[in-house]
Amino acid sequence: MALLKLQFPLQRRVRLAQGLWLLSWLAVLAGAFTFSLGVYLKTELLRRAEVMDNTEIHVVPNILMLVGLVTMGINLFAGRVCQDSLDSARFPPWKPFLLPWYGLAWMVCVWLLSAVVLSYALQGHLEESLKVGLRNGIRFYRDTDVPGRCFQKETIDRLQMELRCCGNTNYRDWFEVQWISNRYLDFTSKEVKDRVRSNVDGRYLMDGVPFSCCNPGSPRPCLQNHLTDNTAHYNYEHQSEELNLYNRGCRQALVDYYMGLMNTIGPGILSVISLQMSVLVSLRYLQTSLDGVDPENPEADSEGYILAKGVKETMMDVKNIMFKLLQFGQVEAGDEAEAGADGEKAATSS
């Protein structure tokens, strides 16, 4: 028994073709929208590539860009089919291409859904990538004279000011690294010598942060040095001076930013999936209703359906077809192996 069978008089077939033409062009625009989302997300990820350890998260914008282009292509095809659908001479040449089109349209929906799922599933990978990347960025902050790292200081400073964050997890991450280059340290100073000697690795560590950690919303001038020493500053308590520096770490700020993008993109992609499914179902109804038209009476009613059989019977048919294809492939492989063996025997005997 056919699945979701409907009656289609001539007028209803005409309206279906017209509506599907409009839907297909809306889907083309949706494909362009999807491609644009992918480009925007890719650009935002590349902006922060210096503070990322890997590019696994880039799979999401890559899928969106690819699927966006495919969506535009298949829906341009659907629009052309709609134009020729009511012409008995121009529609038949399109029929052999419809089955592959259905398969590609299903794949587009699956790819879009996978992009939405991956955008949330890869949050842990994104956070770990940012953790390692920011840790390296902070460690190489001082290397303004080292080729390949001279941009790290500007990158980290701009990042902290734009996202209003400080350090990897918080501002205390700066206490664990020497972020001032040796060329700017006076090694004749007793304080500098004592700090370097007191460290096992010979690094100049201090309870201070770069200027980019300063919060302009603080009522008092920014304090960058001796942050844990309450006696170094008048009327100062480092555990309560929350407004002086940004308390949020840059890793959390970046994760929040990118997940906010994903949360915004997700509903848009689900809308594109719904639109693409509407085009797919409508084109299937149009095709089957036109196939059922009596050639001698083209204005008569016809029946349209999604599947010629029930879901279970259709799945069994697909399974049998796949099984036969696999068997055919195995037979061909066996014949080639036999031919090769015969050739070796003939060469040996000669």
TrEMBL record:
A GO CC term attached to the entry: plasma membrane
Annotated InterPro entries: Peripherin/rom-1, Peripherin/rom-1_CS, Peripherin_LEL, Tetraspanin/Peripherin, Tetraspanin_EC2_sf
Entry keyword annotation includes Oxidoreductase: no
Membrane-crossing segments per the record: 20-41, 62-81, 101-122
Keywords of the record: Membrane, Transmembrane, Transmembrane helix
Gene Ontology process terms (BP): visual perception
CDD domains in the record: peripherin_like_LEL (cd03162)
Keyword Membrane: yes
A Pfam family matched in the record: Tetraspanin
Topology within the bilayer: Multi-pass membrane protein
Subcellular location: Membrane
Assigned protein family: Belongs to the PRPH2/ROM1 family.
Protein name stated in the entry: Retinal outer segment membrane protein 1b
Organism (species): Hucho hucho
Organism taxonomic ancestry: Eukaryota, Metazoa, Chordata, Craniata, Vertebrata
